[in-house]
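To fix ideas, we close by showing one paired sequence and structure record:
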Amino acid sequence: MFPRTAQQQWWFEAPESKNRSQAAGLRLAIAYHDRDADAVARALPEDEAEVRLVMGALENGLLALNQLYLPGAPDEVWERVTPIIDASAPAGVASRARALLAAMMHAMYDPTLNEVYDRKEQDPYAGAHLYAALTAMRAFGGEGDIEYMRAKADELDLA
């Protein structure tokens, strides 16, 4: 059934919903960047369908960023992103996000990638947190601009 994934679903949303989910995703990534555990805990909406859209928006943004700047080798990504996750993720989320990251990294060298993506779709809360932490990691690396992210989130909130 189409759309199957959160990312695909995001593409078919109304503009207001897309803007809202992008803004929430950027605010979550900014909170991870700032190592603000309180803001991280409050950033996602309560509704699981909304969380899926935030995860889809973040995944979409990362895929676009990956076209411009490769994220680095899996070991390098692990070393850069796990401290961000550990510093700010809500209780119980850090281990789920780390497990999802480990599975995704392993799947890069194994044909089980579809299983990993199914796992991500089954736990959009952990997926959204993982993608936000990866987005924050990319901002630290000079591949993104945290001030631009803040301005874009504000702009999307007004749209």
